[in-house]
Amino acid sequence: MSDPRAAKDAARAQARARRDSLSDDQLRAFAADALRERFLEDLVRPGFIPDGPVAGYWPLGSELDVRPLLLHLKTGGLKTGRRSIALPVSGPRGQALTFRDWDPVLPLAAGRYGIQEPGTDRPEVVPAVLLVPMLAFDRSGHRLGYGAGYYDRTLDALRAIRPVLAVGMAFAAQEMDAVPCGAHDERLDWILTERETLRFTQ
């Protein structure tokens, strides 16, 4: 009988190596700009994005950079007006993430994993939209994370109290045929890459 955990670990190693190989600065800058425009054209302008705060993430290592999109939303680059933007704060392993309001002019602090986070003086936010990083994805809306379960627990907790739109952000090269997944893995509503927009919920 195959070991699901071993399958996930093997998939993570392969996916991380693939994403790390995308080291060309021009490609990464192009992808960041392309995802910003795709988010605005395919989700915001058609009205798929609910009102309320948008939670992004500060890129770690070779993760796709969503900061151009976050800044666009924060500064009111939309006809719909400015959005409140939040960044995640990592607590102990096994717990859901919390989110704090992000002000680009204020300094950030290194969190549990060395990721930049808003300080404890920033108010907590319950997002209506969650931008989700990943190691890999498939065309069923499943993502492969790092193994700590933060985003699965976070989505489960948020969806228990209010509707939240989960939008995976990835390079097209991060796609795999089938992500190994378990009963507690939360599916994404959308996945955006620099090449296309995938929708999984109606």
Question: Can you describe this structure?
Answer:
- 28% of the residues lie in helices and 17% in strands.
- The protein has four helices and eleven strands; from the N terminus they run ααβαβββββββαβββ.
- The strands form three sheets. The chain has a seven-stranded mixed beta sheet, with helices on both faces. Strands 4-5 form a two-stranded antiparallel ribbon. The chain has a two-stranded antiparallel sheet with strand order 7-8.
- The radius of gyration is 16 Å and the shape is globular.
Compile the SSE list and pairings.
Blueprint: H1 4-20, H2 25-44, E1 54-55, H3 67-74, E2 85-89, E3 98-101, E4 109-110, E5 116-117, E6 129-132, E7 136-137, E8 143-144, H4 150-161, E9 165-169, E10 190-192, E11 197-199
Parallel strand pairs: 1-2, 1-6, 6-9, 9-10
Antiparallel strand pairs: 2-3, 4-5, 7-8, 10-11
